Structure formats: structure tokens, C-alpha cells
Amino acid sequence: MINKIFKEKFTILLGLLLVYVIATPFFETIINQEIFLNITFSAVMLSAILTLSREKKSRIAVILLVLPCFVLLWLKLPDSSSEIFLAGAVLQAVFNFFMVFIIIWLVFHSPVITRDIISASIVAYLFVALFFANSFLVLEILLPGSFSISNDLITVDPSVLKYFSFVTLTTLGYGDVVPISNQAKTMAISEAFIGQIYLTVLIARLVGVYAAGNHRQKK
Question: What domain count does the chain have?
């Protein structure tokens, strides 16, 4: 059972991330949205520790990131100070960036393509969107008015920027949330560019490794 979990660790993390990203609106009538988000993101962070548990240096680094993230996540109440709100957003952005870096490194150094490696590739893509979502939030806290929606709405419901981040990463560009400041525009351009480059390079890498594996088997 334990070996099965370790073999499918990225698939499990992917499932938790999808719940965190997609499921929240469907549970609003059952549980408070912020509590649901806190629970699911806490599960994501714990799963991240499990995912990297066999990589000693990575495990230590992710634990050091998760602990303060976990504390600030549950300290972030409606009447919390702006410093706690900002610190939480910064730490989550750092955590997301770290996960992107580590997972991409693992994917691009994998000698074979498995279902779990494909899951890891998708996980890294989702973490890119979450990194920019938190980065946008940090920008809005430091420079209010960076987006077309009000600062009050963003601080009360930061998931608006998560939505904007995924729309930008996938280059959908609905236009209901628009970057206003030069800093926000630059970050949006960077995210759209990274999203397209990531998919292009990732597909080339996965196809290349898969083809190489088939070639070795034929020999």
C-alpha cells in the first residue's frame, strides 16, 4: 500500500490540487469558502512533503517552507493585519515557485515516462498558475489599484486573482479582470509567455523520452 502511494505520489498531489483549484465554488453552500480553501491547500502542502520525502535536501527545504505557510494560512482571518496577509501571500508564492522548480527538475531528469511523471508535469503547470496568483496578490497589496477590480474585493476574495492567473496562463484572456499598472501588465505578459513555452518544451521532452524508450526496447 505504501509503495503504491509513493509510485502515484504526483497523481495524488494532482488530485488535491484540482480539488483546491476547481471544487471550491461547488462547496460554498456546505462549508465556508475560506475554510475549505485552507483545508485543501493544507492537504496540498502535506502531500508536497510526501511527494519529496525521498529527496532529502528537497524534503528539508519544503518542510521549512510549509511550516510557516501553514501557520500563516490559518492565522489569516478577516480581521488579520495587512502584514500577516502579505507575509502569507509571499510565503505561498515562494512555496509554489519551489515546487515548480523541483518538479520540473524531476520531470526533465526522468529516464522514462510514466503516468506519475505525466501527472507531475501537470502539477508543475498548476503550481505556475498558483505562483503568479500569489505574486499578483502581493503586487496588489503593495500597489493597490494594479488591477481593474477594487482592492477591497481582492483582499476579501483573493481567488479572483487565482482565476485571473489561470486565464492568463492559458491565454484565454476574457477581459473581465485587466492589469492596470505597468508592473501588473509585465507580470501578466511573463505568465502568458511562460505558460506557452512550458507546454511547448514539455511536450517535446515527453515525446523525446518516450521515443527514446521505444527505440531502446526495439534494440
Answer: 1
**pLDDT tens digits for range 177-186:** 999 999 999 9
The residue range of the domain holding 114 is: 2-218
- Please name the residues in contact with 126: beta carbons below 8 A apart, sequence gap of 6 or more: 14, 17, 18, 21
CA angle 102/33/116 to nearest 5° reads: 30
Say what the pLDDT of residue 75 is.
75
Query: Does residue 149 register a pLDDT over 70?
Result: yes
Residue-wise DSSP of 9-76: HHHHHHHHHHIIIIIGGGGTTTS-HHHHHHHHHHHHHHHHHHHTTTSHHHHHHHHHHHHHHHHHHHH-
User: What is the C-alpha to C-alpha distance for residues 169 and 165, in angstroms, rounded to an integer?
Assistant: 6
* pLDDT tens digits, 30-46: 777 778 888 899 999 98
Residue 140 cell numbers, joined: 496588489
Are residues 104 and 117 in contact, defined by beta-carbon separation less than 8 angstroms? no
pLDDT in tens, 100-136: 999 998 888 888 788 888 899 999 999 999 999 999 9
In angstroms, rounded to a whole number, what is the distance separating the alpha carbons of residues 190 and 171? 11
CA 131 to the chain's CA centroid? 5
Close Cβ partners of 21 (under 8 Å, ≥ 6 residues apart): 126, 129, 130, 162, 166
Residue 22 falls in which region: left (phi positive, over 0), alpha (psi -120 to 50) or beta: alpha
Whole-structure pTM value: 0.88
